[in-house]
Design the sequence.
């Protein structure tokens, strides 16, 4: 316990619309994610999952509605400012500088920490992902896909973000790496992060998540406890769109 009694949700989406030109990708989507909890966002291809993730992270601007991080309205804030509220957007290959070494990447990841905390953050990263310590002098671009994903996730391990947006992190990874991805996300949540989880592995996503939001053609088709979502998923919300 860190003593906080603040019950403000880490993330609020209030009737958010996202459009790409004339096409609507999200329509009137609302969501609250409490601190220390995880929500799985499910839906067929094109349902709007990534658009939701990008709207939270400021990578796409909502055309209507509001996004709040820890009670602060960030709807019109650029992505780099939203990051300063403790948000980390993780997606395949994102945030890894291929032409820098592993150690240089990690140094950048810990720059936002006070100097005295950087070494222990690094120690935590190496304890979580020992292979990164072995590869610390190697260029990140030379790592395997799984190792690059570890390096990408190590930013979350180093800084303990308030909000983690995880967009298809296990795509194309070997089963052992998928286990590691989920274990790392679970550890983030234990440390108080709110997690928005988009995943192809529905069962795994639901076993980590507390809540579930199912999208269908950009609108909320169902929401409820993750434990009850399986049955709804099987009823066809995850079928092909169209
Ligand atoms: P997938 O699982 O295939 O990534 P998704 O559920 O994440 O799908 P989005 O990527 O959010 O869905 O896409 C929602 C809708 O918006 C789709 O119809 C998609 O074609 C469209 N879309 C997404 N990105 C863009 C873009 N940059 N420009 C135009 N349309 C887009």
Sequence:
């Amino acid at each position: 316990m860190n003593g906080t009694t603040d019950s403000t949700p880490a993330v609020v989406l209030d009737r958010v619309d996202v459009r790409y030109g004339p096409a609507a990708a999200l329509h009137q989507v609302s969501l609250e994610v409490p601190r220390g909890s995880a929500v799985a966002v499910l839906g067929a291809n094109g349902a709007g999952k990534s658009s939701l993730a990008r709207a939270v992270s400021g990578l796409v601007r909502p055309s209507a509605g509001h996004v709040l991080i820890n009670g602060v309205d960030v709807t019109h804030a650029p992505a780099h400012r939203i990051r300063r509220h403790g948000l980390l957007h993780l997606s395949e290959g994102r945030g890894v500088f291929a032409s820098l070494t592993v150690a240089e990447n990690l140094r950048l990841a810990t720059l936002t920490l006070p100097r005295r905390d950087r070494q222990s953050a690094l120690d935590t990263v190496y304890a979580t992902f020992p292979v990164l310590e072995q590869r610390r002098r190697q260029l990140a671009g030379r790592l395997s896909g799984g190792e690059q994903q570890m390096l990408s996730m190590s930013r979350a391990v180093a800084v303990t973000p308030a909000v983690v947006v995880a967009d298809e992190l296990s795509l194309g990874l070997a089963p052992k790496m998928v286990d590691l991805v989920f274990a790392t996300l679970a550890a983030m949540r234990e440390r108080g992060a709110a997690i928005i989880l988009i995943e192809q592995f529905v069962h795994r996503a639901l076993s980590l998540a507390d809540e579930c939001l199912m999208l269908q053609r950009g609108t909320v088709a169902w929401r409820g406890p993750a434990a009850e979502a399986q049955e709804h998923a099987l009823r066809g919300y995850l079928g092909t769109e169209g």
